[in-house]
């Protein structure tokens, strides 16, 4: 494990009413100790999990639109408002890694194509061909299988967006192989109950107005999915009857 602590430099914030400091989980946040090689951020959209992950990526020196330290391309509104107010504590510090941002992965793939016009070896870390020549899911797995290496930190924002359940399992295998070598750290914001099932990981919930450790079986992702699979017809009947009443 490399990144040990994330702290908020609250004394430098002039107006805590502005974005993103008004988000409840960010407003109550002071510092976070990372104790596992794999940490998940969970919570509803708007809870602050992706905001904090993006800010960590910013302070790691990664492109906040997605990529590593050497991926310098511009994307509108990709700057992190929270990043300058974070302090990261390392032991030891690493500079290798990657920030995957599912919503801007298309732009990252285009950036690689532009780099490859000058050096075809660019594709070497991504399966040997343009990510645009692969399906969305294939391109994600190609990134994971070829770009992810040892002694690095990987920040993934909703990687399940392009992955089928089978490919989510493939990602878990890649993570496990790297983590077992003791030289990789993952911080992942996700809604996937499959990914959250990774053994021994810490799950941090951003709901309820604060960041708190939560057990896998206590996450909404597990409970709702489990209930749906066990009581699909009853759940859908209740859901549709509520819509009819409206």
Automatic annotation (TrEMBL):
Cell division listed as a keyword: no
A GO biological-process term: double-strand break repair
Entry keywords, A to Z: ATP-binding, Cell membrane, Ion transport, Iron, Iron transport, Membrane, Nucleotide-binding, Transport
GO cellular component term of the entry, any: plasma membrane
Gene Ontology MF term list: ATP binding; ATP hydrolysis activity
InterPro entries: AAA+_ATPase, AAA_GajA/Old/RecF-like, ABC_transporter-like_ATP-bd, P-loop_NTPase, Rad50/SbcC_AAA, Siderophore_ABC-ATPase
Pfam families documented for this protein: AAA_15, AAA_23
Subcellular location: Cell membrane
PANTHER family in the record: IRON(3+)-HYDROXAMATE IMPORT ATP-BINDING PROTEIN FHUC (PTHR42771:SF2)
Protein name, as recorded: ATP-binding cassette domain-containing protein
């Amino acid at each position: 494990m490399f990144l040990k602590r994330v702290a908020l430099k609250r004394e430098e914030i002039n107006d805590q009413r502005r974005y993103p400091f008004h988000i409840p989980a960010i407003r109550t946040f002071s510092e976070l100790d990372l104790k596992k090689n794999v940490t998940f951020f969970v919570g509803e959209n708007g809870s602050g999990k992706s905001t904090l992950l993006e800010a960590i990526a910013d302070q790691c020196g990664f492109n906040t639109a997605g990529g590593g330290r050497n991926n310098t391309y511009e994307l509108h509104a990709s700057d992190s408002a929270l990043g300058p107010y974070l302090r990261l504590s390392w032991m030891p510090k690493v500079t290798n890694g990657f920030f995957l941002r599912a919503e801007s992965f298309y732009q990252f793939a285009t950036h690689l194509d532009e780099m490859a016009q000058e050096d075809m070896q660019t594709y070497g870390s991504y399966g040997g061909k343009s990510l645009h020549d692969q399906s969305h899911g294939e391109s994600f797995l190609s990134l994971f299988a070829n770009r992810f290496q040892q002694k690095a930190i990987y920040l993934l924002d909703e990687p399940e967006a392009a992955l089928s359940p089978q490919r989510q399992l493939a990602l878990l295998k890649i993570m496990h192989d790297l983590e077992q070598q003791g030289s990789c750290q993952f911080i992942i914001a996700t809604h996937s109950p499959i990914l959250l099932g990774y053994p021994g990981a810490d799950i941090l919930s951003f709901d309820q107005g604060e960041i708190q450790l939560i057990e896998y079986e206590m996450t909404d992702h597990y409970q709702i999915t489990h209930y749906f699979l066990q009581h699909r017809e009853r759940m859908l009947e209740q859901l549709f009857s509520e819509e009819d009443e409206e």
